[in-house]
Structures are given as C-alpha cells and as structure tokens.
Amino acid sequence: MAVYCNSAPFSCKASRNRDPTPLSALLPTRLFSLLQPPISFHPDRLKLSTCRWDKVASAVVSEESAVGSSSSGTDVFNLTYLEGNSWLWDISGVRVLVDPILVGNLDFGIPWLYDAAKKFLKNFELTDLPQVDCLLITQSLDDHCHLKTLKPLSKMSPNLRVIATPNAKPLLDPLFRNGQLTLYYEPYCVYNKDFLEKEHADIVITPVIKQLLPNFTLVSGQEDAVQLAKLLHAKFIVPMKNGDLDSKGFLASIVQGEGTIESFKELLLKELPDAKTLEPTPGEPLQIPPP
C-alpha cells in the first residue's frame, strides 16, 4: 500500500542514530547541493523549497570532495544521478530513491518502437543500492514508474515507504505494503452497518462498557463493539472509558454502566479470536507498531 502526497509538505529529518553507508563504492562522482530544508512534494511539480537561501552550492565533484562535503553540517544533500529520471538522494542520512530504472531497459512496453539503455551505469543493479528509506514516484509513466524495476524492488523491500502521485496508485498498491495501519474512531459505539460493509480498519477505538439512562442507551458497547470490530476486520481494539469519570449531579446518579472490559474480551474471543484488546493508560502513549 503506497502513501500518496497531494499538498502536505514532506520533511526529511536527519537520522542521528545511523551512520549512512558511503556511496563512494558505487559511483565515481556525486552531485550535491547545500540547501535549507524542507523538501516539499506537490502534485503539479516537484521542487526543493527554501525560505532563505543562505548558501547554495551545486557541482559535480570528485569522489574525494563529495565524501569530505558530507560532514559539513546537518542540512547536506548528496544527490546521486542514476541516469534517465532516476536519482538517489541522501538528505542528512535519509535516503530517497527517485523514479528508479535499474532492471532492464526503458521501452514503455513497445521495444520495437523505443528501447533505451543507460550509457554509463550499465552494470548498476538493485543490489548495488544502499539501504533506502523512501521511494518517490513522480508520475505513472514507464520512465518514472518502471515496473521492471519496482516489482523486484518490492520483493526485496515490501515495506518500503512510498510517496507517489495518485495516478501511480493502481500500479504501486499491489507491490508495496508500507506497513500501514488504518484507524476507526467511534466514541459512542453507534454506527451504520451499511456504511461500513466495504470498509476496513486495523485499529478500532470505541467504548466497550455501555452507559445507560432509563429507556435510553447513552453509549453502547459490549456486543455492539464486538460487531463493529468484526465488521471492520480489526486487529486491535482500544477500549474507551468515557464513562469512567468522577462525576456528580442528578444525571450522573441515574446513568448505569453495563458490562466490563473482561466480559467484552470474552465476547470478542468468540467472534474475532485473532484480535487483541489494548487498554490505554491515561496520560501515557499507547504504541501500536505496523504489521
């Protein structure tokens, strides 16, 4: 599953706990540019935006000079050109692979009409790449979204983070999982089944203990929470305790709770045995890792 970015800026920050592998073993030269962050992706154009150009230097430099330049600050861009539309960007330790064509030629599926091979990097392969943090696909045509390259890349790195244009979505969705989680939030456990029949959520946040007024359900839960989780094929259920407050007054005196978290777990085990109930602790983050 790919991530698609239409207008929100995408910021690459330095990874302080990793010493990036030098690219000097791969290529004799590097293209580098010293810019102020951030790097932004837009649907109609790809640009490097800066609010102040305090220093800008772009050059093709020798291997020795490039290696020396990579340690001159936290905002160094190491831009390695891989021919065609392909790049490998190293942005302060974050590596972005752009429109890679590294397997076979570029022929748009019609080699009798057009067939192009690289002039300089004829023996450069996917296995020659360092560890990549992100794949950027700027459009869906073969000279950017090269399936001969992307299919084996997805087998090597199925959870590689992907940023792409919407028109590349049908091509990339089957290839990359991205370890992406989806979340559904329903604070009253009241929902329309018809609206959710075709939906999916890995995480469901909802009450599991009912809050009842005389002849009226204020907050649902229990079996309704189980059915909601089942309907959405949830992997994780995070119970809300929105009735567990130090409350007073007439209304508080007539609200009755029904069920417990333990009784909910028993119901859930029967209907959705692989789902997990994760109880949050107030004030503490509850971390749910991607699959």
Automatic annotation (TrEMBL):
Q: InterPro entries under this entry?
A: RibonucZ/Hydroxyglut_hydro (IPR036866)
Protein origin, superkingdom: Eukaryota
Supply the Gene3D superfamilies for this chain: Ribonuclease Z/Hydroxyacylglutathione hydrolase-like
> One Pfam family from the UniProt entry?
Lactamase_B_3
Q: Where is the signal peptide?
A: none
Protein name (Swiss-Prot/TrEMBL): Metallo-beta-lactamase domain-containing protein
